[in-house]
Design a protein that fits this description.
The chain is an alpha+beta fold. The chain is built from four helices and twelve strands, in the order E-H-E-H-E-E-E-E-E-H-E-H-E-E-E-E. The protein has a single domain, classed as Endonuclease/exonuclease/phosphatase (Deoxyribonuclease I, Chain A).
Length: 230
Amino acid sequence: MKKFTLASFNIGACSKMFGRYDEKDLFAVADLIRSVGADVIALQEVDRGCARSGGVDMAAVIARRAGYRYRHFITIRPFQGGRYGTAILSRFPILKRKTINYKVEVAKQGTSCGYVVLDVDGVAVTVFNTHLSCESEAANLDTMRCLDGILSSYGRPFLCCGDFNTSPAVVSAHVGGVRLANKDLHTYADVSIDNVLYTKGISVSDVHTVDATTVPVSDHNVLVCKVNVK
């Protein structure tokens, strides 16, 4: 059995300390991530080359400063001359990577999921990352329907991190064949909208949050768990 630590964290485009992007904010996010010590971390609200954040590649800077050798940026949509999306950082080599755009019917803001297949000490482990719509309940369900279709057809064990922008109960009702790591831990204000989904062949333990809102480094807490893969 292979074991590693997985985290999911909405970094709020590194703009929460000062109400706008600042390099100090980016470094604070990276330093908090380093202190968490996760082997793999999925990030949401990540800028790459956007004007509002000075053209910085957030995933690249965070990976270097926090000590991750491998990364995959997942585009949600073009934004201010660059791209806005999510990212997966890993201490393990990436064997395969993919970005999948959602074919939405209701949601107006583009969104997506992506995944990496990691070499965890000789065992291939798939980790997805997504950020579902927060435009409305209908738009959220629209993106969740897309995610469910992708995950249900994947055909092998996986973990799926993300900011789902809805409760664990709603995710359970609309995404089939998965278990939820976070049942009631507050990750944004007093709600539990960030989660890690996982399938048979995988178990999780020691699920907890790391506070990131006091400074604030972000308006979300970091969700962390131990993963066991058979």
